[in-house]
């Protein structure tokens, strides 16, 4: 969709956001810059701020829904590639395994980095295999899957503070991590520049914390398995759901899970379950799992499926044929408006059926549900 004119400087060519998002959605940016070092990243954001221009910092574009009108400001493409390992000399007090720090700049591709940690014999990220995007987005979303999330291993995050114009190091507690959320999400004060992960040197994975993974491995919750086996199992599960990017698989034209799993109180869970039983029958078997804080986490996928949205479509957008939690776009000329219409159908339909309002996981740019 974008056009490159001969002798035109890369920074001056029109950047179409649909070429930089996994959904293939988004119109043009007013201007764009590519940052290949942290200094360039900070400099580009600071210059745009000084000029009073809106700024969109863009990594892999795997968790964005962008307006068909594009972005009326400067898009900073983050392509900072640095990653290194540091032996600390410390050991984990519970396992005695050596602690190794992984320092990764925001522009590092996530899954190749996870693959590298597995090859290095370091656990802590193995169940996060196959997730698209770049390192910079992981603390923002507190990226997680299959019982593991990045808040469990992030030691600190180097950020550029747009309010003060300074660089800061935030420790884990200052990041404010909760389920698929953090102090960074919904607030553009901080630009993530580098993330430091504390990993453990071991041949085995962290304890399995997700029943689906345990079943696929023929193991029990709490067991540990060889790192490579854990990674390959997760990749297999994700591929079966269209959650590993594949240009030949239209179900992977998505932003991953479009809705977060709702968290409700025990009393609310009883009400939702009773509503499900009335709608579907006494053997509906609505799943619910403790969130560790006295509340119950529901399955958004179960709610969407039982509300009748399997195979539902709106124009150029449809519910994935592999996993109802993913909303996909068709190749060609998809529109953000079609995707939003589909998302609203699903959100409103689930609320009508079960009294639970789903919340979108992807970041909305210039649009809202």
Feature tags:
disordered N terminus, three-stranded parallel sheet, alpha+beta, 369 residues, single chain, 19 strands, globular
What do you see in this structure?
With 369 residues, the chain is α+β, with helices and mostly antiparallel strands. It is built from 8 helices and 19 strands. It has helices at 38-50, 110-119, 138-141, 211-217, 227-240, 266-280, 300-306, 336-354, and strands at residues 29-35, 55-58, 64-66, 71-78, 83-91, 98-105, 122-123, 144-145, 148-149, 154-161, 166-171, 190-201, 263-264, 288-290, 296-298, 313-314, 317-319, 327-329, 363-365. Strands 5, 6, 7, 10, 11 and 12 form a 6-stranded antiparallel sheet that branches. It has a 3-stranded parallel sheet with strand order 1-4-2, with helices on one face. The longest helix is centred in the C-terminal third of the chain and has 19 residues, at 336-354. It starts with 28 loop residues before the first strand and ends with a strand. Residues 1-9 have low confidence and may be disordered.
Q: Can I get a quick summary?
A:
The chain has 369 residues and is of the alpha+beta class. It is 24% helix and 24% strand.
Q: How many DSSP-defined strands?
A: 19
Percent of residues in beta strands: 15-25%
Largest beta-sheet details: 6 strands, antiparallel
Helix content: 10-25%
Report how far apart the termini are: 26 Å
User: Using only CA atoms, what is the Rg?
Assistant: 21 Å
């Amino acid at each position: 969709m974008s056009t490159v004119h001969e002798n035109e400087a890369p920074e001056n060519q029109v950047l179409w956001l649909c070429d930089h998002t996994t959904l293939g959605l988004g119109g043009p940016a007013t201007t764009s810059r590519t940052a290949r070092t942290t200094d360039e990243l900070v400099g580009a954001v600071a210059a745009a701020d000084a000029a009073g221009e809106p700024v969109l910092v863009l990594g892999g574009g795997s968790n964005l829904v962008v307006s068909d009108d594009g972005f009326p400001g400067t898009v900073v493409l983050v392509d900072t590639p640095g990653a290194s390992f540091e032996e600390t000399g410390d050991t984990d007090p519970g396992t005695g395994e050596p602690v190794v720090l992984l320092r990764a700049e925001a522009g590092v591709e996530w899954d190749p980095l996870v693959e590298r940690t597995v090859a290095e014999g370091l656990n802590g990220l193995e169940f996060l295999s196959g997730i698209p995007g770049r390192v910079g987005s992981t603390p923002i979303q507190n990226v997680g899957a299959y019982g593991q999330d990045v808040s469990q291993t992030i030691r600190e995050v180097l950020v550029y503070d747009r309010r003060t114009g300074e660089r800061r190091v935030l420790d884990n507690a200052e990041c404010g991590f909760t389920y698929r959320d953090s102090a960074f999400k919904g607030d553009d004060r901080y630009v993530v520049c580098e993330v430091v992960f504390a990993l453990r040197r071991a041949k085995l994975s962290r304890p399995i914390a997700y029943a689906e993974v345990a079943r696929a491995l023929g193991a029990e919750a709490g067991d540990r398995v060889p790192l490579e086996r854990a990674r390959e199992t997760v990749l297999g599960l994700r591929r079966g759901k269209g959650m590993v990017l594949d240009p030949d698989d239209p179900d992977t034209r998505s932003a991953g899970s479009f809705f977060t799993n709702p968290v409700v109180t025990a009393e609310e869970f009883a009400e939702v379950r009773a509503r499900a039983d009335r709608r579907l029958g006494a053997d509906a078997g609505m799943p619910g799992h403790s969130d560790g804080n006295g509340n119950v986490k529901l399955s958004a996928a179960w709610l969407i499926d039982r509300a009748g949205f399997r195979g539902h479509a709106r124009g150029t957008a449809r519910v994935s044929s592999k996993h109802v939690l993913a909303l996909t776009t068709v190749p060609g000329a998809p529109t953000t408006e079609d995707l939003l219409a589909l998302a609203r159908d699903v959100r409103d339909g689930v609320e009508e059926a079960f009294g639970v309002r789903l919340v979108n996981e992807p970041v909305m740019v210039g649009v809202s549900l």
